[in-house]
Amino acid sequence: MTNGHDVADLAHLAFTWSFLADGEPLAEGPLEVPALAAGESARVMLPAPPAHRAGAETVWTVRAVLARDTAWAAAGHEVAWGQLTVQGPAPRPSAATARAVRAADRIALGPGVFDAATGVLTALGPLPVTAGPRLDVWRAPTDNDEGAPWQPDERHGPLWRALGLHRMRHRTDEVVLDGGALTVRSRVAPAASDLGLRTTYRWTSDGTALRLGVEVEPEGDWRVPLPRLGVLLGLPAALDRAEWYGAGPGEAYPDTRAAARLGRWAAPVDALHTPYLRPQENGARIDTRWLRLGGETGGVRVEGEPAFAFTARRWTTERLAAAAHRGELVPGDTIWLHLDHAQHGIGSQSCGPGVLPEYRLDAAPAAFSLTFTPLGRPPAPGPLRGRGSGHV
């Protein structure tokens, strides 16, 4: 433990620990920390971990809160926190036991129903899928993406629009049934451009869940980074509650994640939106192991390999990008769910430097998978809540 204060010691703080297994707090308690002077460090011993399921992802969380009321905050106000991963997440077993069956203009595979001509998912169990999932690389440019005209760095927002990344075209090249798999090959590209993304979607099922494997191969000389890389799908507006195991509770991006901690969180879909003065990309929750969207009539659970970021909104990215004011964002009858393998960083180019090199999302071969399971029960109702640290 290190006291990073310049003057104060740690006597004004109380410390607690909690032990999480797959995001669930199994035990918690006070942590004895000496009143270290400014700049001092000391080794602090955590207790023995509680019994937990073998293979669970396990994490220690330590929090520092005010021990008593002050002029600026009440006792219990969180000043700092940290997490230490003991055991990472175990890979999800996958068994492709169901067979794909074609009947007229439809293909059935496990709980999924697909359009036979395009290979697009149209239903997941009783849940209609109004769009997708299909590859998506566009985001509503942020103020930092737009940049400032006096800056020497590349301004990615104008470059993305000049390339046509806001109007990508999807061409289905092949739909193949091969026993237990449905494979769809497509090319995703701006209109009239040599640039493209060869995309393969491979669907399999164990009879209960539907697994989507996505492989992306860039074509052409991509000289600018991608805004995002993932899939987009449309779901009924009734799925208005989100629960997830990942980083939270607020939004986070690759280079703006310092406040996001691992845990289980829940919120209404409408509360996931960050209402910036000028509408722009917002609301991503990163490092998500699983997500559950639900309503009164059921829902869907999504698991990712590797972990993914998600956003859920009642308007399209195109409407978000076109809006000049928050009042122009009118909810529709669809929840637009982005499931991102990666996103370009945020940077600070509206007033400072652009995205650092390590947070650029350059076009490169990529592969990721998502597993979709239809649900019969919604997440528990209530306001934004979390279990990542015992306190939100």
From TrEMBL:
Q: Which GO terms describe its molecular function?
A: beta-galactosidase activity; carbohydrate binding
EC number(s) stated in the UniProt entry for this protein: 3.2.1.23
Q: Which UniProt keywords apply?
A: Glycosidase, Hydrolase
Q: Name one GO biological process term.
A: lactose catabolic process
Where in this chain does the record put each Beta galactosidase small chain/ domain? Answer: 112-373
One Gene Ontology cellular component annotation? beta-galactosidase complex
Query: Reaction catalysed by this chain?
Result: Hydrolysis of terminal non-reducing beta-D-galactose residues in beta-D-galactosides
**A Pfam family this chain is assigned to:** LacZ_4
Gene3D superfamilies from the entry?
2.70.98.10, Immunoglobulins
PANTHER family from the entry?
A: BETA-GALACTOSIDASE (PTHR46323)
Q: What is this protein called?
A: beta-galactosidase
Identify the species of origin: Streptomyces venezuelae (strain ATCC 10712 / CBS 650.69 / DSM 40230 / JCM 4526 / NBRC 13096 / PD 04745)
